[in-house]
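Exam prep: given the inputs below (a chain plus hexanoyl-coenzyme A), describe the expected output before reading on.
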Amino acid sequence: MDVIEELEHRRNQARAGGGERRIQSQHSKGKLTARERISALLDPGSFEEYDMFVQHRCTDFGMDETRFSGDGVVTGWGTINGRVVYVFAKDFTVFGGSLSEAHAEKIIKIQDMALRNRAPVIGLFDAGGARIQEGVAALAGYGEVFARNVRASGVIPQISVIMGPCAGGDVYSPAMTDFIFMVRDTSYMFVTGPDVVKTVTNETVTAEELGGARVHTTKSSIADKAFDNDIEALLEVRRLIDFLPASNTDALPEIACTDDVLGQDDSLDTIVPANPNQPYDMREIVLKTLDDGDFYELQGSFAQNIITGFGRIEGAPVGIVANQPMVLAGVLDSDASRKAARFVRFCDCFNIPLVTFVDVPGFLPGTSQEYGGLIKHGAKLLYAFAEATVPKITVITRKSYGGAYVVMSSKHIGGDITYAWPSAEIAVMGSKGAAEILYRHELGDPEKVAGRIADYEERFANPFVAAERGFIDDVILPHSTRRRVARGLRLLKSKTVDIPCKKHDNIPL
Ligand code: HXC
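Solution:
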């Protein structure tokens, strides 16, 4: 065989992965193979594969007789809409995508190149954790991968897509990346699977109940989004990449904006109901502020009392944080605080300006919240907004009470521009609660109490007390929100902040 033929033969061998039978089994479960996934993710013809001839070096348990070129992971780089990304995709058809020493070295090479050359890393996971036959060599490989996840954190975006059963090390690496997507019904994430759970805790649980996409997008908040199939998940990764800079020192990816910012949407003038206890959909305000109503929501099924996600204004990416009065009246609880804090920190790492919409009655009272660490979780959001040095614009649409007023990107913790709608109410608490505390001795007299509530309302249920002190910069008409936010963002493009020298901060984890 001449060398060209041998090359082609070896390439075909590598492309065959774990063989036809295992590829068919993969397809029969509704899953694509690693290579099929990569070609759906990247621009056509852009993938350049590395290390396709790498094999494991294990000789225990008869492994010297079972070697596959590529060793269970396909690695390389390509482009998404013309922008470079590095990729590794676990090949479940080879030893269940499990990680050997050689397999780890392939991933590490990609991580190192991505960090050196400043481009995102996307990992497609479908794997059974550490290669059992390799023992500690596999564990060492995971350690090396984890260390690089941490080193790259905040420098280049890291995205994980869970597309099969993932256990052990194959959940900890994704957990340290910026975003996790899952595929419904075919993907699972757990540290230990149902069998081990049964042995240790005597709990009977299915893989889906333990770590399916529903659990991780609604209960644990481990995953940011879930999709019905591999293709949908991969196309959404492409959309996400379009919002992100290649690194923390690269410019934001701007696109031409065809949606006029001078146009006004009069429907916003009537969106806030006259009755302060009646909800309205904050998402509508978000959509009407962004270019073309295009909003890329994250964690949309978890802590729905706060909305987080990306959009564009005048073609440039922005991060949106917004209380949602439709769910729990938009209250801040532990879950909402954690969710928004992580999002704010991501935006700050990658220089994405923050636009915050506020309608918040305060923090959620109660033992379950306090025992669950509301103080620390709420502090995370406070901390995240306060430390963020990106441009920060805040729009208060209605309630902004108590600690939550301060936390939600207020002027006092570094908000750059704060607008309030005429319907804004900025106070220590709602009028009823305030009157009942201040005039407790009058509680037996409903007429008197009603008068006290009305007094408090008249004094504080408006934006002007805060405006008189300069705590908000302007009271704006709702229909002008998009224009005012766009102008503010233009102004803040040259924002610079000096922060004192420190090794790193100590956010209340
Ligand atoms: C070697 C493995 C493997 C592993 C699966 N395979 N996991 N080989 N090491 N960890 C192989 C199987 O032998 C099989 O080979 C093929 O992959 C497909 O596996 P199946 O079991 O047939 O598939 P399925 O029924 O779909 O089940 C998938 C699975 C299960 C849920 C992932 O295989 C499983 O539970 N694997 C073990 C998971 C685990 O406990 N891993 C260690 C975690 S500890 P053939 O030749 O038949 O195709 C860990 C430590 C790191 O990761 C921690 C760092 C902090």
